[in-house]
Structure formats: C-alpha cells, structure tokens
Amino acid sequence: MAGGERRTVFVTVGTTCFDALVMAVDSPEVKKALLQKGYTDLLIQMGRGTYVPSKVSGDATLQVDHFTFSPSIADNMRTASLVISHAGSGSIFETLRLGKPLIVVVNEDLMDNHQSELAEELAERKHLFCARPQTLGETIRAMDLGTLVPYVPGDAKPVVTLINKFLGFPVD
C-alpha cells in the first residue's frame, strides 16, 4: 500500500440482531482474509446484538473497532473500501448507490427470508457478492472486485417484478 493508505471494511447489521455476522467478521479466518486482500481497518456496526467483537486482531496490522448504533451510517459507507452488510434492502441499495463493493451476508435464522432472494438476484446480476456467515471467509478470499457490475439506479422494474413475484402478485 503506497503512502500507508487506509482501506476500511465497514460491516453493518442495521437495526437488527445478527450476531452470526458479527461473530463471522470477528473470526481469525475472516480477519486474515481481509488482511490478505489489503484491508487495514475493520469497523463493525453491531446493532442489537449481544456478541461484542474483539478489538484485537490476530495481526496488529488490522485495526478493529465497533459500535452499536449511529444516527447515520452513510458516512461510514461513503469512506469504506468494502461494505459487508446484512441483507436489508435499505442497506443494500444505499451501498450500491454509493458505488461501493458489497458483500451481503444472509441471515438464515429469519423466517420467510425474502431478503436472501433479493441478495441472490443482485449477486446473479454481478452487482454484489452474496455469502452466509459460515462462507464469509471463503467469499472474501475468492472475490474479484473487477467482476462487479455497477448498479444503475432508476429502473426499479426488475426489482418490483421480483418482489411482486415473491409476494404472489400478478407480474406483467
């Protein structure tokens, strides 16, 4: 890294409790994968979770910090080099609008998880990477940011069609 440039990974669970995601990013495996990809800082927004991540990384070169809530996480997203997010549509689309690389981690504990369908559809379109808590390290190691296709906001029809199909409404 030329000139000691900081590359921050911002993790958000939104207003939910998603301890499985916080535990996954706190694991030595994920921290090592982030370091190998050249990231220097890990900032975790842990929401209503009870698991408190360690501020110590196995390697002193990854700076780790965490907080529960903030009035706005937009600044954290704007300054991040990579965002790792729960599958909430607000967090997904805010990150994509900012043009930030995104890994969406699906919470498999949620019932009727429509969020996973949205995340998987956007991953198929190459706008983001999709993972589960147990596959996050592998996803980070395998990801190639050059394969991502920028999300162009404006045409909501494909997303509306997907949501309508999921909800059982007629699709044009």
From TrEMBL:
SUPFAM superfamilies in alphabetical order: UDP-Glycosyltransferase/glycogen phosphorylase (SSF53756)
Gene Ontology cellular component annotations, sorted alphabetically: UDP-N-acetylglucosamine transferase complex
Ranges for domain Glycosyl transferase family 28 C-terminal come to: 8-148
Tell me a Gene Ontology molecular-function term this record carries.
hexosyltransferase activity
Q: Which GO terms describe its biological process?
A: dolichol-linked oligosaccharide biosynthetic process
UniProt-listed Gene3D superfamilies: Glycogen Phosphorylase B
Superkingdom of the source species: Eukaryota
Q: Which PANTHER family match?
A: UDP-N-ACETYLGLUCOSAMINE TRANSFERASE SUBUNIT ALG13
- Please report the name of this protein according to its UniProt entry: Glycosyl transferase family 28 C-terminal domain-containing protein
